[in-house]
Amino acid sequence: DMRIILMGSALALTLSACGGAKDPNEAAKESMAKSQLKPGEYSMKMNITKLEMPGMPAAQLEQMKTQMASSMPTSNFCLTAEQAKAGAEEMYKKMGQGDCKFDKFSDTGSAVSGTMNCNSGGMAMTMTFNGTKSETSSSTDSEMQMKGPTGTMVMGSHIEMNRVGDCKSAG
Questions:
Q1: Strands, E, within 53-110: which ranges?
Q2: What is the per-residue pLDDT across 86-115, written as a single tens digit (0 to 9) for each?
Q3: Dist. CA 15–CA 33, nearest whole Å
Q4: Is the dihedral of CA 36, 86, 20, 95 positive or negative?
């Protein structure tokens, strides 16, 4: 599900901090291990900024973009201290299983950018991203290019995530 990939990527980028290693995969791993989001309730909104599919007419692409946008409303979630600490570690473990690797990764502490390549189910995907972040928010632009049997699909997105307060107690 592209939505899960994009949201997971946004979370990983938000959880990242300064990494000094030269190898981009090590830099990303160190970066994600050093920082975390502040626990609390967050609001996340994703917008599709670009959508291209080989052979699909423009009108159908616009309809698909509209449908995707309506299936991605602003969502709120509670991030516990345990989840904040484990989030980046878990994300990197998933990337490290051989499906994804960073070709480039840069983190200045308040800005992050990079390129990641993944292979899954016979499809190759390249994602480039850049954004800004803090311990309570992130703003990330990304573009995914997925190569499949019919050509290359391109999808761009913008994801905003902000801490809106403490988690509301359950019950």
A1: 75-79, 100-107
A2: 655 555 555 555 578 888 888 887 888 889
A3: 8
A4: negative
